[in-house]
Amino acid sequence: MTAAETPDHPEDDDGTGSADGADGAVIRETSRWKRFRLFMKDFRVRALLTLALLVIIAFAARGHYHLFADGWEAIKQANNWYVVAACVAMALAMIAQAEVMVVLLRSAGVKVMRTTANALGLSANAWSATFPGGPAISAAMIFREQLKWGATPVIASWYMVLSGALSGAGMAILGFGAMFFLSADVHPYSMAFTLVILCLLAWGMNWIAKHPQKVESGLLRVLTWFNRKRKAPEDRWHDKIRGFSDQLSAVELPPAKLLWSVVVSLLNWITEILCLLFCVHAVGATPSIAGVVLAFITAKLVGQAQITPGGLGPVDAALVGMLVGAAQMGSAKALAAVIVFRMISFLGLAIIGWLVFLWNFVRDSVDTQHFPTLRQIASGSAARGENGAPGAGGTDTAEPPSN
């Protein structure tokens, strides 16, 4: 555009100059936010933040280093039978977690073997526990593998939502129960309210599965209205919504399967809590069960952010603090119990998960001359022989592994 063609006052053309300025400000703000997110996703930034957080925790605990010596003495005197029981409880927790996946996916017509689901659960847990922001990597890995099993994106997303809701409801039930038994100021109707919400969610999921055409038509109407508001083509993204009913109609979650998924989801939490309880008894402490439950749930909530790998630091501090405060344990024994518990639930599971991941996803790509890159391993392309990574039989492509 030449100088003659450039209007001196753009706002005089259509009266929208101020709106364009507002849109420009929004775009600049969005751009700054994207740059910040990319900066925070940088591995070096995360590593420095993790190191800084650990240094801060170490500095804050500088006056309590004697607790580590006392805790180490308690660990050396730990009851090995309780440690074995804790390991068994954690193994059962991982099996229960995989069973939730099996029940929900099979109700959607996806044929998945229990061994495959358990292998994926252990592998995803290893990724989740090892890196800052690992849960996002873990969720993406689970989503990708479920697509390889034959699940559609809608079914895989449905699984993520429902399994998360079941997990959250189970934690809420255990938390309300623990606070109730501790005589905390929590009305028993709170637990009933959680159960009602869970039932409504299950009913809603079943209704959507039985009336997918109505859901699809409703989504199309909302999308059309949104496009009109944005002054975009009314049929924009309609092609992504169409076919939604065909995918979701495959879901059949009868009450019996729903009840079993709820039970198994609760068993996942209960067995993890049993693992912590056995670790506490292993170092010679006898706290209240309700106090241990509250300590476990508090640590889980703190670990949701997972600034450090596996919540290392914040989770341990929360566990020790709650075991001392809510479970009435001594500081040294609380620290010893947490160390034993984290050795099993964090370090032990991560090691096993990486071994399972290497066996199931990477072993076919191992070559004496070419080794897969970390990016190829993380994306799963190494096992499939994509992007130049050697696959099974040395070919460029390979069939998805079936266990």
If you had to describe this structure to a student in words, what would you say it looks like?
Residues 1-23, 381-403 are annotated as: Disordered. Pfam families: LPG_synthase_TM. It is a multi-pass membrane protein. The chain has a domain at 64-210 and 250-365. The protein has 18 helices and no strands. The chain is an all-alpha fold.
Rg, Cα atoms, Å: 26 Å
Structural class: mainly alpha
For the terminal residues, how far apart are their CA atoms?
62 Å
Oligomer: single chain
- Main pleated-sheet profile: none
- Give the fraction of residues assigned to helices: over 70%
Number of helices: 18
Stretches where pLDDT is under 50 for at least 5 consecutive residues are 1-6, 8-19, 382-403
- Mean pLDDT over all positions: 75
The helix/strand order is: HHHHHHHHHHHHHHHHHH
What is the total tally of β strands? Answer: 0
Please state roughly what percent of the residues sit in beta strands, choosing from under 5%, 5-15%, 15-25%, 25-35%, 35-45% or over 45%.
under 5%
